[in-house]
Amino acid sequence: MKTLYTILALCFFVALADAQVEIKVDPTKEIKEISPYIYGRNNNLSDDPAKPLSDSQWQLYKDAGLTFFRESGGNNSTKYNWRRKLSSHPDWYNNVYAHDWDYAAVSLQENMPEVKGMWSFQLLGYVAKTNAANFPDWDYQQAGNEPRPHENWCGGGDYTQYLEEWPADSTTGILEHWFDELGLNKEQFQYWNMDNEPEVWNGTHDDVVPDGITPEEYIAKYVAVAVSARMAFPGIKIVGPVFNNEWQWYNWQNNYELKNAEGKRCSWVEYFIMRIAEEQERTGLRLVDVLDFHFYPEFGSGDDVRGTTLQLHRIFYDTNYEYPLGNGVKILDNTQSDWNKRSKKEYIWKRANDYLNKYMGENHGVTMGLSEVGNFYDGDPNVIAASYASFLGTFAENNVEIFSTWTEYTGQWEVMHLFSRYAGTTSVTSTSSLDSLVSAYSSVNATKDTLTIILVNRDVDNSRAVSASLQNATTEKTEVSFYRLSNLPKNQETFISKDNNALEKGSVEISNKDYFSMTLPKLSVTAVQVPLQSPVGNRDLQNNNKTTFDLFPNPATSQTKVVAEGFSGDVTITVTDMLARTLKTIQANSVGGKVEITIDLSAFENGVYFVKIQNSNLTKIRKLIIK
After folding, report:
1. Contact 374, 404 (CB under 8 A)
2. 367-373 and 402-405 as β-strands: parallel, antiparallel, unpaired?
3. Which of 216, 277, 393, 394 has the fewest CB within 10 Å, making it most exposed?
4. 265 SS3 class
5. Where are the alpha helices (DSSP H) in 284-408?
6. Which tens digit of pLDDT belongs to each residue from 375-422?
7. How many CB atoms lie within 10 A of CB 300?
């Protein structure tokens, strides 16, 4: 009988592997515009004028489609002094070394003016002042001593020897320096990180905060810098608080117990959103634009590292996926006493969006960002390619605004090139009958006459037969092109340029104007481009776009400036009092979906007012304080 069961089980899995995966795509059902800044990397520029990037390196970035550079240096950004061009390295004895962010930013603008660069504000309160107190690491190691880079040996353990105080106006002073003195483009450098991983400063920056700080102490530092930055340059994008990792998504330093508005224990993510919502209400300023996370997956020795790597994209929105090494999420379940019964379902960005809706309202306009991710299984570039493609596809579907990887793995350049070159600008609805292994990420181009279906086969052992059908759309073509990455060689970077890479081109037959079938190799990424018979989805996309509306300054005295995005056509701006009486009406036209106009308040008495901006599709209201 045991043999029979074994045979039946084998037959079942063979049948499962041979079963055709059904893909359905409806290009008329648009989801979100795809952010162009999900094609990012960390620390790919030189901040040393003596070591400029070569022309070939710049060309590689352009060919691969790199659109977003996060260049602050991670933990090294926390003590960066932009005036002295020095930073203290917490992962190397706290020694102080030269870094020239000015040079890096200028070189980026000169070589790739169309992409975005993100650097960081410092919130800790101290930055590097001199390298004269450095620990003699070279002599120490040459003497045969074991390196102990996390020891606080710079300055003999006295941080006042190598650091100086750095208040909020000092850190945000870089904006005036860059935009007014150096003439850098505000649009290109509008993203700013709010320091780096504050939840673990009691480890990374324990020279200054050996016992850690409270959440409220951090919130005070965050708000001071955010207000200073927003008042100085209203158009910047505040990206924070830069959550450290899965445990820190839920927990603060020293397991500090956090309480939400109902007095119940809550995650650090919820607490931060709740408090920033309160501070936004108090100040009248927008204090976060992109909610930024870091993620370094944990893998136990007995885990299926390949399999877990291939499912990591599900951690962000999939309410059914259980991350095997999920740990911090257990604090959200206070009813279970057995550790093994704790929930491992993360869906951290769905949770975050729920918190944003709860505390800021459904039109909060805050997007998600993942500015560091690493620690994947790197034994096979095909695993990396399939995993990275799944991240990009998932993030495109959910309008994630920024995504930059920390660790460079073989296979990523190839996938970035495929997506940035062939994916469209607006994601559309796709379904898969076996989405855990084979996913379809679909998009249409700006003119909506070409559909791209990117098929990712995450099966580590089997090729997969797929059938794809178009819903509410057809093509006149009887054959369409596809572009594929598969069987990438180990220990060899195959992406050299846009014309010299591992991308394979082929074609597939179209049946009945709306159907095709093909076999996907194991661990492969395939982009199928389908010219549509007629453009689809001609309706206004505005309701799907991110919209923002802010007033600067607020509180105001004699005038305030309306800054809004996502409003097309003619707009009407009205100012009303607490009794809903209209006191001023202004007609304006948007330019590229943006509105910027100054309101004269000199005739208004001190008090609370409401400013409303609306067009035929959208209405948003902000409270204005005049004093």
Report:
1. no
2. parallel
3. 216
4. strand
5. 305-309, 348-360, 381-397
6. 988 889 999 999 999 999 999 999 999 999 999 999 999 999 999 999
7. 10
